[in-house]
Structure formats: C-alpha cells, structure tokens
Specification:
Strand order of the largest sheet of chain A: 1-2
Largest interface: B-C, 49 and 52 residues
Structural class of chain A: mainly alpha
Strand content of chain A: under 5%
Number of strands of chain A: 2
Chains: A mainly alpha, B alpha/beta, C mainly alpha
Shape of chain A: globular
Mean pLDDT of chain B: 95
Strand content of chain B: 15-25%
Oligomer: heterotrimer
Order of helices and strands of chain A: HHHHHHHHEEHH
Largest sheet of chain B: 7 strands, mixed
CATH architecture of the largest domain in chain A: Up-down Bundle
Number of strands of chain B: 19
Structural class of chain B: alpha/beta
CATH topology of the largest domain in chain A: Ferritin
CATH class of the largest domain in chain A: Mainly Alpha
Number of domains of chain A: 2
Order of helices and strands of chain B: EHEHEHHEEHEEHEEEEHEEEHHEEEHEEH
Mean pLDDT of chain A: 84
CATH superfamily of the largest domain in chain A: Ferritin, core subunit, four-helix bundle
Number of helices of chain A: 10
Distance between the termini of chain A: 17 Å
Helix content of chain B: 10-25%
Radius of gyration of chain B: 23 Å
Number of helices of chain B: 11
Shape of chain B: globular
Chain lengths: 384, 524, 163
Amino acid sequence: MIDEDKLDLRKIASIVKAATTSGHKTQFAMPARRLAFGTEAASLTAKSAAAAAVEAVLLKADPPPPDLPAIDAIKLALRAALRLEFATIPPYLTALWSIIDQAHPVAISIRAIAHEEMLHLSLLCNLLAALDERPSLTGDAVPRFPSQLPGGVHPEIELRLEGYGPTALETFMEIERPEAALPIEGEPLETFPAEDVTIGEFYQELLQGIQRVNPPLDARRQIAGPFTWFVMTKLDDVEQAIKLIMAQGEGAHGVPFPKYKHHLSHYYRFKSLKLLTKLEWDEDAKLLRKKDQIPAPAVFTLAPPPPEGYSQAAPRELRTASNRFENTYSQMLRLLEESWLEGGDKSFLRALELMFELGPLAQTIMRIGTPDGRGYCPSFRYLP
Amino acid sequence: MTAAYDYVIVGSGVAATLVCDRLLEANPLTSILVLEAGERIPARDRRSWWDLVLAKRTPYSITYDDDKAGGESQESYSVGNVLWTFKESRVRAYGGSTMHWGGWSLRFKEEDFECRSRTGRGADWPFGYSTLEPWYELAEQKLGVGGALKDEGPRRRWGYPLPAYPWSAHESELAGAFEKHGLKPGHMPIARFKRCMTTGTCKYCPIGARYSAQDHMDALLYEPAHANFHLKTGAPVRRIVANRNRVNGVEYHDAMTGEWLVAQGAKVIVCAGTYESAKLLLASTSPEWPTGLGNRYDQVGRYIVTHLLFSVEGTRKDNPQGWFQEYDFPTLMSRSWDTPEKQADGKMFVFNNRALPKIEFDTLMMQGKSRKEIDEIVKGPRRAGLSAFVEEFGDPQNRLSLAPGTGKFGLPKTRISFSRRNPARFMATVTAAQAKLAECLASLGYERNEPTKENPRGDHASGVCRMGHSPDSSVTNGNLAVHGIENLFVCSNAVLPNAAAVNPTLTLGALALRLGSWLAEESR
Amino acid sequence: MAEFWDETLPVDMLAPGDQPLSREEVDLLWSLFRAIATHWETEKIDPELMRSRWLDMLEARSSGQVDFRGEYRHAAAVWKVMVDKLTEPVAITKLFADTVVTKEDQAKSRIAHVKFYVANDFIRCFVAKGGFRGFVEKARNHTGFMGGSRFREWPPVRTGDRR
C-alpha cells in the first residue's frame, strides 16, 4: 500500500511547480481517464491508477521528480493538504472536550478554531470534488496518533491526543506559527526558527499551480452549509479559499487576523489563551494590546490513549464508551465521504448529527478514572 | 395468548420511554412489551422535512383528532359552556406528542404542589416539590434542557445541563419593557440538545436536536443488551384484563395477525396520554369493576383541565431594523405572575409570541412584488405579540368520558364536558392580564390590535386520573398506582392533581423517571 | 397563436414518468433558480452556496406519492423555450413579476404550472437557504436555515443589549 504520507510538502510543492510550468507529458503509460460527469459514485476513485504509479516511483527515486500531468500534481498536493488539515482536528477536539464547561470562553475559542479547521478540510474536499476526485476521509486517510505532522512539517512536533494544558497549547502554537511574529504589548518579541518545509510556501505553490493550469471547476459535487461555507466555481474563488486557509491560521500579511480584527487567527487565539488575556489589534500602534483577563478553565487531566485502542484489559465501562465513540466517529467519516457526491446533502446532515454526538461521548470517556487518578482519552480510531 | 412480561406498557411517548429507560438501566434483561396504537412516523426523512419547509405540512398531522363537527369520522366532542378544542393537540404515533412538541421544559413551583391548602381551589399533590426535585434534575438531563440558573423558578440545586439561548434583538427590546412593567424577563427552558443548529423547523427537526421520545425509545429498543424489550405499533389496547384487585394484562389488536390478543404482564403501566389513559380505565369494565377499573368512586375522567392560551398583539408603524423572527421558539418568558400571590386567581406564565414579527419574503415574492416593494414592506409596520398560559382548577363537574364508537387507530371516541362556574370572573382575570401585556407592547410603540377569543386546547389536558391520598377523591396514589389495584399504574398527564401555569412535560418526565426507578427498586 | 408557454394545461400535476431528471434538465432548473437572485437583486448572496441544498430538495421531491418530476421536466422545457425566444432578462420578468399563481386552480397554462409547481417552491427554498439575507443583510437566521448552535462565538440570531 502506497503511503503518500511519506512525501514531504516541499517535494510535493516542487512537483506541482514542475508539472504546472513545464507542461510535459508523463513518462508513464496512463490509462485513459474517464470523465466523471454524471457517472455513478463507484466510478470515482480516490486516486487515479496513474497517480498511484507515479507515487511508487517517487518513493523509490531521489530528486529530480519525474513529470506528472499538471492536474494530477495538483490533486496530489490537495490530498497532502487534506491530510495535514485532517491531522490537526482530533487533537484540537480532544483539547476542546477536555474542558469541563463546554460554554467556557476558552472552550468557545478552541471550538472556533476547530470549526475553521473543518472549514479548511471541506474547502479542500470541495476543491478535489471540483476536479472530479472524490476526497478520501476513511480508512488509511484517517490520521493516527501519536504521529508526526503529515508532509514533514515541523518534524520536531509529536502530534498527540491530549487534554488542554500548557503542552497542548505549545504544540498547537507551533503548528499555526506564522513566519514572523507580531508584537504584543508587554511581551518580548518572539523570533521563530526558520523552517525547512513551511506550510505557507506549500499553499502558495499550490495556488500558483492551480492558477497556471486554470482547470474547469465543477460545482455539482461541492457542498455549502454549516462548517463549509464556500463553493468554488472560478479561479478567484480558489484564490480566496486558499488565502483564507492560510490567513485563518497565521493571519494575513502583517496583521494577526484573516479579515476582521475581532476574529484573530489561530496562532494569536492560542497565544491569547496562553496569556489568559484577550488580545486586540491596535492598527495605529501596530501591535496587539492586552484586554480583559480570561479565566482558566477546569479541565479533565487525561492519560494518553494507546494507539491500538483500549484492550480487553481495560475496564468494561471504558471499552463500551470507547467502542461507541469509535463507531460514531467512523460512521461519521463514512457519511462525510459520501457528502461529496452529487446530492450528498442528506449524508452531510447525518454526519453533522453524529459530529455533535462525539463531544458528549468523549466527555463520558474522560470522566472514567484511570488507576492514577486521571481520565481516559478518546482514541479516534477508524473502524471499518 | 402471549408469554407473560414483567411489564406491559400502553403508549410509547415520553412517559413510557422514561419509565423503560429506568427499568432497563436497573436490569437490562427486564421483559417489557410496549403497545402503541399508532404507527411509526419516520424521523429525519428528507421529503417530510422539505414538505414542512415548502408546504408547512407535517407527516404526523394525519394522527390528529378529527374534530370536524357532524361528520361520521368525527372522533371528539365538546359539550359544556366552554368549547374545548382538539385541534392539533396530540400526536398518536410511536413517540407520542413529543413528535410535535415545542420542547418547553419548566419545573412546577413549590406552591403548585400545595394548591388546595393554599387557596382552597384545585388539589394538593400527595407529596411536595422536594420529593420530585431530584427527578426534575434527571429529566432535564435526559431531555437536554437548556436554561439560565439566575431566572425565576423553583429552588434548584444545580444549574441546567445546557446553557440558555440568547434573546433575539426583538426579545431584548421586549425584555426591557418587561422590566418596566413588573415582569422579570427570563429564558424559556427548552429541550434542545447541544447539536441544535437553530434551523427553525422544530416541528420536524432534520437532525434530531429537539428531544423526541422516538429517538430515545429507538436507542433503548436497538440496544443489544435489552434482549427482552419489545414494542409493537398498530396495537391499540381496548381493555385491561383484571381479576379483583390485580390486573393480568391487556387486550390489544395485533396488526400482524389481525386478532385481539392478551398480553400478560406482572405489572401494567398506562402511559397513553391524558385522554386514552382515562378512557382505557373506563372501558375496562368487569363484574368487579362495573364502571371501569379504579373507578369505584366515579373519579376517573373528572377534574379535566388544560391551559388556556391568551395573547395580545400590536403593530408599530415602522421596522427600521428589518426584524423578523429568527428562532422557531420563544426564548423570552416571565414567571413573575407564576407566584404564590397569584395562585388563588390562577397563575400565569408569560412568553413571547415566537411567530412575530413576521416578514414573509417568499409570499411577497410569489405575489410578484418587486425588490423595491419588498424593501418598503420590510421597513414598514411591524407586529409583535405576547402570550400567556393561565391556570385553571379541576372541577368535579368537568369530565372526560367515552363517546360511542371507535375513531382512528382503533381508539374509542372522546367526549369532554367543560364548563366554568364563574366565566365572567375568569374572563375578567384574563382581560386584565391582556391589558397589562398590551401596556408592555404599547411602551415600545405597538398599538393594540383587535383581541381574539381563546378556547382551551387539549395539548396540556390533565387531571383525569389525578393523584391523591384518598380513593374517593383521586384515582392514583403518590406512587402512581391506581387505588385498590396492586399492579396497575398510570403515568401520563392524567395523574397531575393540578395543572400549574406551565407546560407539563418536564413534570411528567420527572414522574416517569421516579416511577421507573421505584418499580426497579421494588422488583429486586 | 398562443406562445408555447401560454398554452393551456389542466390544473392537475403532470405525471412524473419513469426517468430521473437528466443533466440538462437539472442545469436548466438551476438557471431558473439562479434567476430568482437576479430578479430580486440579491447579488450579495451567492446562489452557488445553496446549490447542494437545492439539489437535495429536487431529489427529495422527485419520488413518493406526490412526485414532482413531471413538473420539473416540463418547467425545464418551458424555461428553455422562454429564454431562447425572449432572452433571459425578459423571461425572468415574465415569470417572476408578471405571472402570479398562488392557488392550484389558477395553474391553467404552461407558465402557470411552472410558477405554481416549480418556481414558487424554488422561491421558498431560496429564501429559507440564505436568500433572506439578500433583503435584510444583517439578518442571521430564518426558518429552514441552519443559523448555528449556542456554543459558537457568534449568536445564531441578531441579538440586542440584553442577552
């Protein structure tokens, strides 16, 4: 089984650049691609056989990467972006649900961030669907934990499922870190180490690649609705979407927010939670001012979940709760996948319902006490 | 003949569901047969949802009582000096009336349990608020009730399981007017799970965010551990089979075989709603019980009451903000008239009329109005409304009884005789209250519209198998057991000794949870 | 001789037939839906955002006891003729401004059928799925619209000073 996960974002970015600027034909024999318009779901494959063949070569070969048809390179990059966005969601949700009062201001802030990540996920799924590819959200596409971030990004981070606290916050801040820090009143100015593989550059390359190719975008299988407000039918929409993804994480150029100054970008929201102080951008002074204090939330302290799930040795109460969680999560992912088919609205609504069930199920698990006085953590395993 | 069950339960609404929830929690292998006269109406069906959005049709409206006068199919009759309406007041289907309810979930107040002692009117409950308090807590969790701790209400140990909804901009303005008129504004405690996305089609929620007994009962039914839990739909029960002071089971119509069968149960619980609970007891005659089960003293069916809903509406000349109702439920309410001081004349529960202000964009567009015309209408006159429930007191002359013949779902027809002894006094109280509410509206610039006449509606009907200590003035005891019978229980709004001023469902839920737990405990 | 769209039809719903709607028919109906936004100048609201909901409606109404496929197919055909013969702007005005059919017994011609059985529903769908914001920009919610939960940063309705 090909593990696209092994490809780092820098490599993918260069593949995209090469494929979309050179316009070379592939060196490999490719089966003719069928147009997906009006065809049944079964004919949509998660990866074209051609792309799979190419990836096999990529994994064995060293640079320079061989030529790929431009559209396949773009889809490769989109799948990588999807993996990245997907990977951040379970850790954010775990941190969110570990806050006992789900209406606490800290919970509300993390929830806003998690919702935006889901928006990024669905934008990428919409983009893949616009290019006739069915996004994959089940099976091997489901992130496992603990792991590294996909795409070789921030290799020093171990992405874990853990409760809200200082270590979780540090990890999240590192993931969302912009290239340059903005000053915060009364805080030393941060300097960030240079990264080998940056998410920002990758998205830039992806956007430019799409702009060069200017592919037709099919609206039929895209979704708009809760958590997914965007449908892309022209190039401008794609630019808007990708810029939004970047800006919601890091902020727009020189400001700590994507569009409206009351909606801070993820990095600065996490920063605000770390300082337990509301931050507000002062446009004249070009810095973030400290405002009201934010109370620290009461949290469940969690023991990390075993990657292979809870075994027979675990308490029965836990196994039952964990089973329910994993089954609900898996069913939700299957329904989400089905949402990106024509008329997938009804699957999406069912997925939404299950999504809301996950929080209470997670907190049920967290309430079960470990032998050393902590709470258990949901494992987010996919069960076929 | 079917095998004997631990429990045979008549009806599948919120009461039956919560009783089963407790029984099965204590012992997952409890053998239970639930018999529902109606059918299963599929939930979350896309077509049904679109029919609601586009044509305002609901899939369960076929289960409503046919009260069209004079037709052969008329199922319900009202006699007396007050016309009692049956219009859309109950759902006869799997899940019962929680299929269509608004989810308003308020606790009765301490004084409601002592109505007669305090006022000489109505009846006392055989226990006080503190007995029911822990069950109210559990009911709020099961139903997913959101509310605000600081709002008026009876004492409570803990906050609500979920937060309240913020008032809309219009309600925020009304709240200010409330304050100036001696009404403390509060937030309607409402049964919406966390997943509620304020879609506004609560009558048929596409994502099951409003509590429905169907969802809950399904979860119990499909739980593999509940191996002896069974449910039949299309199975009306026509009588309870009794032998002296014990019941043996019920006679029901089996849809599969078309026969009348007897389901034997060690205990029988009647959770069939106010109307059917009383009618079933009345229909279960025998040599020992010539006037119906538990009816030795002719108490079954008496004291029927409901909540009268009255409203005021007003219109102001403009709507600069372009407000229109954005929720499908009221969030603004006040219990400032739901107090011991008001009890003697009937307490009142005030709430915003959630249907106003209204701008029907689609209707205007279908009428061919232009953008400019619609813009003018949006800015134009704005209506607002306030409504209230008023408490009435059980009167022995008011009664529910069997009407000849059978209606839909094989259920006997219904006859209600309801009269007020002093209608002038009652209407004077209502009129005075309307005037006060109109003052609130007037202070915001709303000129009062013509008042409409109100009729009591059966949604909150109660009292016909009321609880009490003594068999000569009540039907059930404090444990909901029918006086004089060891193993027959009633758990529906029928058992409420008085109706208070607020919706009864949360109280019914609390009673059901308490009954289920008590029965589970007893059977150990 | 009457124009195609003015030809008389009995008021009853047209039979649904056996076939699902074709790609072309759906596209024509989508352009009819989009015309609502054009006619009422609600440009700020992108109808594309409503497409998946609209498709859900089409699919849901294309089966069951009351099956709208016959009317949908008919509406697609009539709309095509109208746009071809009149140009789209004129067709839009004709259908949405000049033709008012609010009762079943008024659906006596082709265009009346289109209005009553298809366009009216499209209007209701349009309003419920976000079109209301085209008229009142600050509005947040409407019956049939998923405004969001209580747990989000921004309330699902317009709020005032008192919460």
